[in-house]
Amino acid sequence: MAQTAAVVSTSALSARRVLGANEHVRMGLIGCGGRGMFDAKLMRDASNVEFVAVCDLYPPRLAEAREWAGPSAKAYKDFRRLLEQKDVDAVLIATPDHWHAIPTMLACQAGKDVYVEKPLSHNVREGRAMIEAARRHNRIVQVGTQQRSAPHYAEVARIIQSGELGRVHFVRIWNYVNMYPDGIGRAPDSAPPEGVDWDMYLGPAPYVPFNKNRFVGTFRWFWDYGGGLVTDFGIHRFDSMHQIMNAVEPMSISASGGRYGLTDGAETPDIVQVTYEYPGFVLSYEASMLNAHGAGGRTPGKKYYQARGADDRPHGEAYHGTNGTLIVDRLGFEIYPESGNPSGPGAAGRERATEGFRMARKEVSADDATALHTQHFIECVRSRKKPAADVEVGHRSTIVSHLGNIAFRTGHKIRWDAAKEQILDDVVASRLLGRQARKPWDMI
C-alpha cells in the first residue's frame, strides 16, 4: 500500500533511538475511548511521559483526547498518519479488537514500541503475525493484561507453585454479568454518525451497513470484531492462570452453550462453558450474561471485583488444591483450607492424628494493577527489557480464548498442537484460526 511506504521510511530513524532511564517518552494514542483514555492518563502519570499525538475516527472522542493531550498534540483520524510522526516513540493501541493487529505491526515497522490492549488479536493467525513483527523490528510490545503486574497475583503463583496449596488438578474461572432480558438491544441499520468513516472502522472485517450496536461500546458481541465475554474478561483470567499454574497452552478444548435468554441482535453466546485439558489439570471456564452471582464465599468487609451485593462474586479464579482452595480476583485473594481429615466414602477410620486444617485461612486485599502495568511498559521502553506481559505471553493467553470460541462455534472437541499452532484433524475448526481480511487490509 502507498500509505505503508511512508510509515516504513520513518523506521530507521526511530529504531536508532535508545531511550535512557530518564529520557522523555513521547506517546501516541490510537483509540481514544474510555479504556484508551484511562490507560493514557496512567501512563502520563509516570515521569517524563507526554502524549504528542492522538487518533480516533469518532470525532467526539478525538476532540476530547486532543483537549486532554494539550494544544501541541496533533490529532488524526487515520492511525497511519500518526505513525508517520517522527517524534512518537511508542503508541498505546486501545481500538476495537479487530483493529489491534494491523496498527501494532505497522507501528513496529515504523520503529515504535507498542502497548496494545487485550485481547491481543482478533484471531490466532493475527497474534502470531504480531509476534513476528515485534521480533523482526526489535520492538517492545506489551499486552494490557494488567494482572501480570499485580503483586498479589505473583504471591498466588508462589503459593501454588511451592506446593503450599497441595496438588492442584482442577481450576475454575468464571465471568458473570446480568444483561437479561434486553442485552444490548436492537437497532436498525442507519447512516453512521457525522464524520465517521464507516469503511475505515470495519477495516479488515467484512463490509456490512452501519449499525450502532456494531460500533462504540458493544462491538465485542459480534464475531467480526470480538469474541464476547470469553475474549473480553476471560483473557485476563486465562493469562493469570498461565502465570499461576506455570502453564502454556491446553491440549484439548470442548464447549457448550448458546444464546438462550437475550432478545437483542448480538451474536456471541449469553451462556458458554468451556472445558480445557492441560497437562496435569483441568480448567473449567464459565461465562454468563444472564446472572451476575458467579460464586459465593466472601469475607465480610472485603472488596470484590465488580460485586454489587453482599454475597456475589461475579468474576474470579478458584484453584482447588489438596490442602485448600484459593480464590483470587484483581482486588485480592482468599485461602479456604481443607480439613485435616479426609472426607467422602471410605473416609471413616482413616482420620489423621493431627486435628484442624491442612493449611491456614488467609485473606489478602489488593488494588487494581493497571497503574503498575502501564508504568512497567514505560520502564521497558527506556530499558529495552522484555515486559512481563510480552506479546508472546499475551498471544499464548489469547489463544485460550480463541480456542474456546472455536470449540463453541463448531460444536467440536478440539485437539491443539501448541508447537505448530494448529488444530489437529479438523478442517472446519482450523478455518477459524484466521480469516481472509478485506482489501486493502489483507496483509496477514
What does this structure look like?
The protein is of the alpha/beta class and 444 residues long. The chain has two domains: 2-147, NAD(P)-binding Rossmann-like Domain (Rossmann fold, 3-Layer(aba) Sandwich), CATH 3.40.50.720; 149-371 and 403-427, Dihydrodipicolinate Reductase, domain 2, CATH 3.30.360. 30% of the residues lie in helices and 20% in strands. It contains 14 helices and 16 strands. It has helices at 2-8, 11-15, 34-45, 59-69, 79-83, 101-109, 124-136, 151-161, 198-202, 228-232, 234-245, 370-383, 391-410, 427-430, and strands spanning 25-30, 49-55, 74-76, 90-93, 113-116, 141-143, 168-176, 252-258, 271-278, 281-288, 315-321, 324-329, 332-337, 362-365, 414-417, 422-423. It has a ten-stranded mixed beta sheet with strand order 14-13-12-11-7-10-9-8-15-16. The chain has a six-stranded parallel beta sheet with strand order 3-2-1-4-5-6, with helices on both faces. β11 and β12 form a beta hairpin. α7 (124-136) runs antiparallel to α13 (391-410). The longest helix has 20 residues, at 391-410. It is globular, with a radius of gyration of 23 Å.
Query: End-to-end distance, in Å?
Result: 14 Å
The fraction of residues assigned to DSSP E strands is 15-25%
| Order of strands in the sheet with most strands | 14-13-12-11-7-10-9-8-15-16
Per CATH, the architecture of the largest domain is 2-Layer Sandwich
Task: Summarize this structure briefly.
The chain is α/β, with parallel strands linked by helices and 444 residues long. The protein is 30% helix and 20% strand. It has two domains: 2-147, 3-Layer(aba) Sandwich (Rossmann fold), CATH 3.40.50.720; 149-371 and 403-427, Dihydrodipicolinate Reductase, domain 2 (2-Layer Sandwich).
